[in-house]
Amino acid sequence: MGSSFHIYCIFKKECNRLIYQDEVSLNYSSLNSTAVIMSVVNLTRTTTFTCKCQNEPEPCGTDIVPGYQPAVPHNLTCIQEGEFGSVNCTWKTGWETHVKTTSHLWVQGALPVSYESVAVHDGTRSALFAVSGTQSNFSVWIHTSNSLGSANSTVHNFTLNEIVKPLSPNISKVECSSRQCQLYPVNSQSTELVEIRYEDKQGSWNTVSYNNTNLTSWTVRSLNPYNQYMFEVRWKLGLTRGLWSEWTQIEGVTDEEVEITVG
Protein backbone atom coordinates (compact mmCIF):
# COMPACT_ATOMS: atom_id res chain seq x y z
CA MET A 1 0.00 0.00 0.00
CA GLY A 2 1.49 3.31 -1.10
CA SER A 3 4.41 1.55 -2.80
CA SER A 4 6.43 2.88 -5.71
CA PHE A 5 7.81 0.49 -8.32
CA HIS A 6 8.56 -0.08 -12.01
CA ILE A 7 6.51 -2.00 -14.56
CA TYR A 8 8.13 -3.55 -17.62
CA CYS A 9 6.39 -4.44 -20.87
CA ILE A 10 8.09 -6.66 -23.45
CA PHE A 11 6.67 -6.60 -26.97
CA LYS A 12 7.12 -9.42 -29.49
CA LYS A 13 7.44 -7.01 -32.37
CA GLU A 14 8.15 -3.40 -33.12
CA CYS A 15 5.02 -1.24 -33.12
CA ASN A 16 3.57 2.00 -31.86
CA ARG A 17 3.37 1.11 -28.17
CA LEU A 18 0.64 2.24 -25.78
CA ILE A 19 0.76 1.85 -21.99
CA TYR A 20 -2.28 2.45 -19.76
CA GLN A 21 -2.95 2.72 -16.05
CA ASP A 22 -6.61 1.80 -15.92
CA GLU A 23 -7.71 3.72 -19.03
CA VAL A 24 -5.25 6.60 -18.74
CA SER A 25 -2.27 6.65 -21.10
CA LEU A 26 1.14 6.71 -19.39
CA ASN A 27 4.52 8.03 -20.37
CA TYR A 28 7.24 5.41 -20.55
CA SER A 29 10.91 4.94 -21.37
CA SER A 30 12.27 2.48 -23.93
CA LEU A 31 14.90 0.06 -22.73
CA ASN A 32 15.50 -1.45 -26.18
CA SER A 33 13.56 -2.27 -29.34
CA THR A 34 11.14 -4.60 -27.51
CA ALA A 35 11.03 -3.51 -23.85
CA VAL A 36 9.70 -0.42 -22.11
CA ILE A 37 9.65 0.67 -18.47
CA MET A 38 7.30 2.96 -16.56
CA SER A 39 7.39 4.25 -13.00
CA VAL A 40 4.46 3.93 -10.61
CA VAL A 41 4.48 6.13 -7.52
CA ASN A 42 2.42 5.69 -4.32
CA LEU A 43 -0.11 3.13 -5.53
CA THR A 44 -3.03 3.08 -3.06
CA ARG A 45 -5.86 1.32 -4.92
CA THR A 46 -6.46 -1.68 -7.15
CA THR A 47 -5.18 -0.76 -10.59
CA THR A 48 -5.02 -2.40 -14.01
CA PHE A 49 -1.91 -1.84 -16.13
CA THR A 50 -2.05 -2.75 -19.83
CA CYS A 51 0.39 -2.73 -22.74
CA LYS A 52 -0.66 -2.97 -26.39
CA CYS A 53 0.31 -2.13 -29.92
CA GLN A 54 -1.71 0.62 -31.52
CA ASN A 55 -4.43 -0.65 -33.90
CA GLU A 56 -4.33 -4.13 -32.32
CA PRO A 57 -7.33 -4.99 -30.12
CA GLU A 58 -5.75 -7.50 -27.73
CA PRO A 59 -3.76 -5.94 -24.87
CA CYS A 60 -1.53 -7.63 -22.32
CA GLY A 61 -1.96 -6.53 -18.73
CA THR A 62 -2.12 -7.25 -15.04
CA ASP A 63 -4.16 -6.18 -12.03
CA ILE A 64 -2.17 -4.99 -9.03
CA VAL A 65 -3.91 -5.02 -5.66
CA PRO A 66 -2.03 -2.97 -3.03
CA GLY A 67 -2.32 -3.89 0.64
CA TYR A 68 -0.57 -4.84 3.84
CA GLN A 69 0.34 -8.09 5.50
CA PRO A 70 -1.75 -8.73 8.63
CA ALA A 71 -0.92 -7.09 11.93
CA VAL A 72 -0.48 -9.32 14.97
CA PRO A 73 -3.96 -9.97 16.43
CA HIS A 74 -4.24 -8.67 20.00
CA ASN A 75 -6.64 -8.28 22.94
CA LEU A 76 -7.79 -11.90 22.58
CA THR A 77 -10.44 -12.66 25.21
CA CYS A 78 -12.91 -15.52 25.64
CA ILE A 79 -16.21 -15.86 27.53
CA GLN A 80 -18.34 -18.97 28.05
CA GLU A 81 -21.90 -17.85 27.39
CA GLY A 82 -23.92 -19.57 30.10
CA GLU A 83 -22.84 -22.38 32.40
CA PHE A 84 -23.19 -24.99 29.64
CA GLY A 85 -22.82 -22.77 26.58
CA SER A 86 -20.21 -22.35 23.86
CA VAL A 87 -17.08 -20.24 24.28
CA ASN A 88 -17.05 -16.96 22.35
CA CYS A 89 -13.60 -15.49 21.62
CA THR A 90 -13.08 -11.94 20.35
CA TRP A 91 -9.96 -10.01 19.35
CA LYS A 92 -8.66 -6.93 17.57
CA THR A 93 -6.93 -7.16 14.21
CA GLY A 94 -4.94 -3.94 13.91
CA TRP A 95 -4.65 -2.11 10.61
CA GLU A 96 -6.81 -2.68 7.54
CA THR A 97 -4.99 -4.92 5.05
CA HIS A 98 -7.03 -3.88 1.96
CA VAL A 99 -6.66 -7.43 0.56
CA LYS A 100 -8.49 -10.67 1.29
CA THR A 101 -7.32 -11.88 4.69
CA THR A 102 -8.33 -15.10 6.42
CA SER A 103 -8.21 -15.95 10.11
CA HIS A 104 -8.49 -19.13 12.17
CA LEU A 105 -9.09 -19.57 15.88
CA TRP A 106 -6.90 -22.43 17.08
CA VAL A 107 -8.07 -24.28 20.18
CA GLN A 108 -6.24 -26.86 22.27
CA GLY A 109 -7.76 -28.61 25.27
CA ALA A 110 -5.85 -30.47 27.92
CA LEU A 111 -3.60 -33.19 26.49
CA PRO A 112 -4.04 -35.53 24.73
CA VAL A 113 -6.81 -33.52 23.00
CA SER A 114 -5.72 -32.54 19.49
CA TYR A 115 -5.81 -29.07 17.99
CA GLU A 116 -9.05 -27.71 16.58
CA SER A 117 -9.26 -24.94 13.99
CA VAL A 118 -12.32 -22.68 13.68
CA ALA A 119 -12.53 -20.77 10.39
CA VAL A 120 -13.40 -17.08 10.68
CA HIS A 121 -15.24 -15.16 7.96
CA ASP A 122 -13.30 -12.34 6.34
CA GLY A 123 -13.64 -9.17 8.41
CA THR A 124 -15.02 -11.00 11.46
CA ARG A 125 -13.31 -10.57 14.83
CA SER A 126 -15.02 -13.31 16.83
CA ALA A 127 -15.49 -17.08 16.77
CA LEU A 128 -17.38 -19.71 18.78
CA PHE A 129 -16.37 -23.21 19.79
CA ALA A 130 -18.31 -25.82 21.73
CA VAL A 131 -16.94 -27.52 24.85
CA SER A 132 -17.49 -31.04 26.12
CA GLY A 133 -18.29 -31.96 29.69
CA THR A 134 -14.80 -33.36 30.26
CA GLN A 135 -12.79 -30.32 29.17
CA SER A 136 -12.09 -27.32 31.39
CA ASN A 137 -8.59 -26.06 30.45
CA PHE A 138 -7.92 -24.45 27.08
CA SER A 139 -5.26 -22.64 25.09
CA VAL A 140 -6.36 -20.50 22.13
CA TRP A 141 -4.69 -18.22 19.60
CA ILE A 142 -5.47 -16.49 16.31
CA HIS A 143 -3.64 -17.17 13.04
CA THR A 144 -4.28 -14.65 10.27
CA SER A 145 -2.83 -14.60 6.76
CA ASN A 146 -3.07 -13.11 3.28
CA SER A 147 -0.99 -13.11 0.11
CA LEU A 148 1.53 -10.73 1.72
CA GLY A 149 2.24 -12.56 4.97
CA SER A 150 0.84 -14.02 8.18
CA ALA A 151 0.77 -13.38 11.93
CA ASN A 152 -0.12 -15.19 15.16
CA SER A 153 -1.52 -13.73 18.35
CA THR A 154 -0.07 -14.63 21.71
CA VAL A 155 -1.53 -17.76 23.30
CA HIS A 156 -4.42 -17.15 25.70
CA ASN A 157 -4.75 -19.79 28.45
CA PHE A 158 -7.86 -20.10 30.61
CA THR A 159 -10.16 -22.43 32.52
CA LEU A 160 -13.93 -22.45 32.12
CA ASN A 161 -14.29 -21.53 35.79
CA GLU A 162 -12.49 -18.27 35.02
CA ILE A 163 -14.52 -17.23 31.97
CA VAL A 164 -18.03 -18.62 32.52
CA LYS A 165 -20.60 -15.83 32.35
CA PRO A 166 -24.16 -16.76 33.37
CA LEU A 167 -27.04 -15.73 31.18
CA SER A 168 -28.80 -12.55 32.27
CA PRO A 169 -31.44 -12.98 34.99
CA ASN A 170 -34.96 -13.48 33.72
CA ILE A 171 -37.25 -11.67 36.16
CA SER A 172 -40.82 -12.93 35.78
CA LYS A 173 -42.54 -10.33 37.97
CA VAL A 174 -42.16 -7.62 40.60
CA GLU A 175 -44.59 -7.36 43.53
CA CYS A 176 -44.52 -4.22 45.63
CA SER A 177 -46.10 -2.97 48.83
CA SER A 178 -45.65 0.55 50.11
CA ARG A 179 -42.11 0.08 51.46
CA GLN A 180 -40.63 -2.91 49.64
CA CYS A 181 -40.60 -4.82 46.35
CA GLN A 182 -40.06 -8.53 45.70
CA LEU A 183 -38.37 -9.65 42.48
CA TYR A 184 -39.02 -13.18 41.21
CA PRO A 185 -36.44 -14.83 38.92
CA VAL A 186 -37.48 -17.65 36.59
CA ASN A 187 -34.46 -19.68 37.75
CA SER A 188 -31.23 -18.94 39.60
CA GLN A 189 -28.79 -21.05 37.51
CA SER A 190 -27.07 -22.20 40.75
CA THR A 191 -25.81 -18.67 41.29
CA GLU A 192 -24.27 -17.73 44.63
CA LEU A 193 -24.02 -13.96 44.25
CA VAL A 194 -26.83 -11.57 43.32
CA GLU A 195 -26.56 -7.80 43.01
CA ILE A 196 -29.57 -5.51 42.67
CA ARG A 197 -29.32 -1.79 42.10
CA TYR A 198 -32.34 0.43 41.89
CA GLU A 199 -33.12 4.00 40.87
CA ASP A 200 -36.05 6.11 41.94
CA LYS A 201 -37.63 8.82 39.81
CA GLN A 202 -35.30 11.42 41.35
CA GLY A 203 -32.32 9.57 39.85
CA SER A 204 -30.83 8.31 43.12
CA TRP A 205 -29.18 4.83 42.94
CA ASN A 206 -28.81 2.26 45.73
CA THR A 207 -27.40 -1.29 45.71
CA VAL A 208 -28.19 -4.44 47.69
CA SER A 209 -26.34 -7.78 47.51
CA TYR A 210 -27.20 -11.38 48.34
CA ASN A 211 -24.61 -14.11 49.02
CA ASN A 212 -24.94 -17.90 48.95
CA THR A 213 -28.61 -17.60 48.14
CA ASN A 214 -31.06 -20.27 47.05
CA LEU A 215 -33.99 -17.90 47.44
CA THR A 216 -36.89 -18.01 45.01
CA SER A 217 -37.29 -14.22 45.28
CA TRP A 218 -35.34 -11.18 46.47
CA THR A 219 -36.76 -8.46 48.67
CA VAL A 220 -35.65 -4.85 48.37
CA ARG A 221 -36.66 -2.90 51.49
CA SER A 222 -36.63 0.68 52.76
CA LEU A 223 -38.33 2.06 49.67
CA ASN A 224 -40.51 5.14 49.53
CA PRO A 225 -44.27 4.78 49.13
CA TYR A 226 -46.01 5.58 45.87
CA ASN A 227 -42.79 5.72 43.90
CA GLN A 228 -41.61 4.26 40.61
CA TYR A 229 -38.33 2.32 40.69
CA MET A 230 -36.07 0.95 37.98
CA PHE A 231 -34.42 -2.28 39.16
CA GLU A 232 -31.29 -3.76 37.57
CA VAL A 233 -30.25 -7.30 38.47
CA ARG A 234 -27.13 -9.32 37.72
CA TRP A 235 -25.66 -12.49 39.19
CA LYS A 236 -22.51 -14.58 39.40
CA LEU A 237 -21.99 -18.32 39.80
CA GLY A 238 -19.56 -18.01 42.71
CA LEU A 239 -17.28 -15.71 44.65
CA THR A 240 -14.20 -16.89 42.73
CA ARG A 241 -15.99 -18.51 39.80
CA GLY A 242 -16.61 -16.78 36.52
CA LEU A 243 -17.86 -13.34 35.55
CA TRP A 244 -20.88 -11.23 36.38
CA SER A 245 -23.82 -11.55 34.00
CA GLU A 246 -25.19 -8.61 32.05
CA TRP A 247 -27.74 -6.46 33.86
CA THR A 248 -31.47 -7.13 33.48
CA GLN A 249 -33.85 -4.17 33.87
CA ILE A 250 -37.40 -4.23 35.22
CA GLU A 251 -39.69 -1.58 36.73
CA GLY A 252 -41.73 -1.63 39.93
CA VAL A 253 -44.10 0.83 41.61
CA THR A 254 -44.61 0.94 45.37
CA ASP A 255 -48.11 1.34 46.77
CA GLU A 256 -49.45 4.41 48.45
CA GLU A 257 -48.92 4.09 52.18
CA VAL A 258 -52.10 3.31 54.09
CA GLU A 259 -52.68 5.50 57.09
CA ILE A 260 -53.29 3.43 60.21
CA THR A 261 -55.76 4.87 62.66
CA VAL A 262 -55.52 3.81 66.29
CA GLY A 263 -58.35 4.30 68.57
TrEMBL record:
First-listed, main subcellular location of the protein, grouped into a coarse class: membrane
Gene Ontology cellular component terms for the protein in this record: plasma membrane
Occurrences of domain Fibronectin type-III (ranges): 165-257
Annotated compartments: Membrane
Membrane topology of the entry: Single-pass type I membrane protein
InterPro entries noted in UniProt: FN3_dom, FN3_sf, Ig-like_fold, Type1_Cytokine_Rcpt_Type2
Keyword match Cell inner membrane: no
Record keywords: Glycoprotein, Membrane, Receptor, Repeat, Signal, Transmembrane, Transmembrane helix
Family recorded in the similarity comment: Belongs to the type I cytokine receptor family. Type 2 subfamily.
Protein name: Fibronectin type-III domain-containing protein
Organism: Hemibagrus guttatus
